[in-house]
Amino acid sequence: MSYQLLKGKKGIIFGALDEKSLAWRTALRCHQEGAEIVLTNAPVALRMGEINKLAEEIKAPVIGADVTKSEDLKKLFEDSMTHFGSRIDFVLHSVGMSVNMRKGRAYTELDYGFNQKTLDISAISFHRVLQTAYELDAINYWGSVVALTYIAAQRVFPDYNEMADAKALLESIARSFGYYYGIKKKVRINTVSQSPTKTTAGSGVKGFDGFQEYAEKMSPLGNASADDCAGYVAVLFSDLTKMVTMQNLFHDGGFSFTGVTEAVVAELEKNLEKA
Questions:
Q1: How confident is the model at residue 275 (pLDDT cuts 50, 70, 90)?
Q2: What does the alpha-carbon distance between residue 187 and residue 145 come to, in Å, rounded to a whole number?
Q3: With the CA atoms of 66, 67, 71 and 73 taken in that order, what torsion angle do they form, in degrees rounded to the nearest 10?
Q4: Sign of CA pseudo-dihedral 209, 53, 226, 191
Q5: Are the C-beta atoms of residues 63 and 40 closer than 8 Å to each other?
Q6: C-alpha closest to that of 256 among 197, 174, 193
Q7: What is the layout of strands, in order, in the sheet containing 188-194?
Q8: Helix, strand, coil: what percent of the chain each, to 5?
Q9: In this structure, what DSSP letter does residue 19 have?
Q10: Over the stretch 61-72, which tens digit does the pLDDT of each residue have?
Q11: What is the set of domains in the chain, with CATH numbers?
Q12: CB 166 within 8 A of CB 118
């Protein structure tokens, strides 16, 4: 069901790789809600992914941009404003990659060169996106920027590795830049901490299936799906949330504030009986 929450709004969505990605689902939902969109991803992701299929479905141009390069982001915002004929109303940052995880290195054995790349791609890129938009005055008054994060920024999830540090930095950037952008243009900046979701990236985390099942048992409402997340982000882009900024918003079925559930206790007791 569409509520036309974003009718007349224009935005940029980073990170749509394939149909399972949160950015892809969000682009679809924003389009359903009446928004016009520019899609972007790194050149290598554009070659590997299926973004042209999405672009055709929602009638959006695709503009490649490496988020670690300010000149690419400057061109992205300039070309997007030319395409729209106006400034932008919303931005989704759905970008992340752990080089150490890809190389199979444990948190206690990090390669610091890889670590620097992880932080640059997964967190500092968010600051670079915001600073570029800020300098170009690319976002309209009362615009909205959302970055996707995960609760590992606050709690230890061993197999999430260095991405936990990256997400903690990402959330800090949202708060700090949210202050300055709020004063300058009333632009609000938030992060959404989503349930474990079986995206292409998420599935690459060691032990993901087991943890997703655990989170399902720990969440009073169950895990939030990718489409649920897309709907929530669309609301954050809408005028209905114009006074929400600098927040890390948990979208996880209650997982983040649940100590234990009967389902988890029952599973533990069952395993103890077997032992």
A1: low
A2: 8
A3: 110
A4: positive
A5: yes
A6: 193
A7: 36-40, 10-14, 88-93, 139-149, 188-194, 248-251
A8: 55, 15, 35
A9: T
A10: 999 999 999 999
A11: 10-274 (3.40.50.720)
A12: yes
Indicate the residue type of 153: A
Residue written as token pair 């009446």: 34
Q: Residues 13-71: pLDDT tens digits?
A: 999 999 999 999 999 999 999 999 999 999 988 887 799 999 999 999 999 999 999 99
Give the percent of the chain with pLDDT over 90: 85
Q: Are 168 and 153 in contact, with CB atoms under 8 Å apart? A: yes
Angle subtended at Cα 49 by Cα 82 and Cα 131, rounded to the nearest 5 degrees: 40
DSSP bridge pairs for 189: 145
Instruction: Quote the tokens at residue 114.
Output: 């890889």
What is d(CA 273, CA 262) in angstroms, rounded to the nearest whole number?
16
d(CA 239, CA 125): 26
What is the rounded CA–CA span in Å between residue 150 and residue 153?
6
Assigned token pair, 8 = 């007349």
- Regarding pTM above 0.85, the answer is yes
Tell me the DSSP string of 112-139: HHHHHHHHIIIIIHHHHHHHHHHHHT-E
Tally of CB atoms within 10 A around 14: 25
192-247: pLDDT as tens digits = 999 999 876 655 666 678 888 989 999 999 999 999 999 999 999 999 999 999 99
Q: At what angle do helices 226-237 and 22-32 cross, to 10 degrees?
A: 50
pLDDT over 90 (residue 82): yes
Per-residue pLDDT, 200: 67
The C-alpha atoms of residue 10 and residue 251 are separated, in whole angstroms, by 24
